[in-house]
Amino acid sequence: MEISVMNKQRKVRFDLAWLRRAADAALAECVLHSGDGKFSLQKLPLVDVAVVSDATIARVHVEFMAIPGATDVITFDHGEIVVSAETALVCAKEHRHSVEHELALYIIHGLLHLNGFDDTSASAKKKMFRVQDRVWQRVMNIP
Questions:
Q1: Taking all residues of the chain, what is their mean pLDDT, rounded to a whole number?
Q2: CA–CA distance, 64 with 44 (Å, rounded to integer)
Q3: Kindly report the CA angle at 114 between 110 and 120, in degrees rounded to 5?
Q4: Which residues contact 21 (CB under 8 A, 6 or more apart)?
Q5: What residues does 82 pair with on adjacent strands?
Q6: How confident is the model at residue 141 (pLDDT cuts 50, 70, 90)?
Q7: Is the confidence at residue 133, as pLDDT, over 80?
Q8: With bands split at pLDDT 50, 70 and 90, how would you rate the model's confidence at 62?
Q9: 33 φ/ψ angles, rounded to the nearest 5 degrees
Q10: Taking 90 as the threshold, does the pLDDT of residue 65 lie above it?
């Protein structure tokens, strides 16, 4: 299993090397936690993460989910995760941490979706966010 992180936007500056290390650590953690017991993440040879602009993620949001507007993360079952750098920057400022840490959180969220977690009901969301927070805390300790 491998994870690839590509920066496909130019508006938000961030440490891509750190984010790639964080994504590797996140993958190693997330693969251990399955929301539905199927461990689907283990079956994917590659997960591609694209860091994009709000305009790009808004287009993806409308095209594939019929929901207008930008969002933080969109996950596709075939192993692609699309995250918004601009949304991450706004949320990072709100939560008083770095844009890299916010992007790592979005990647973790996407990886957990790929491994059978969902956030469509209150109980499922609570379960997913509990695992997400534990994984995120571990990943934040990488150099």
A1: 96
A2: 21
A3: 75
A4: 142, 143
A5: 50, 74
A6: confident
A7: yes
A8: very high
A9: -120, 115
A10: yes
Q: Which residue has the tokens 């990647």?
A: 107
For residue 39, give both structure tokens: 């461990």
Task: Please count the structural domains in the chain.
Answer: 1
Structure tokens at 77: 């079952």
pLDDT-derived band at 27 (thresholds 50, 70, 90) equals very high
Q: Are strands 46-52 and 80-84 parallel, antiparallel or unpaired?
A: parallel
Question: Do the Cβ atoms of 86 and 76 come closer than 8 Å?
Answer: no
Q: In the predicted model, is pLDDT for residue 66 greater than 80?
A: yes
Q: What is the pLDDT of residues 114-129, one digit of tens each?
A: 999 999 999 999 999 9
DSSP assignments along 63-121, one per residue: HHH---S--SEEEETTTEEEEEHHHHHHHHHHHTS-HHHHHHHHHHHHHHHHTT---SS
> What residue numbers bound the domain in which 96 lies?
2-139
- Residue-level length of the chain: 143
Exposure string over 18-50, b if 16+ CB within 10 A, otherwise e: bbbbbbebbbebbbebbbeeeebbeebeebbbb
Q: What is the CATH number of the domain that holds 30?
A: 3.40.390.30
Strand partners, 2: 46
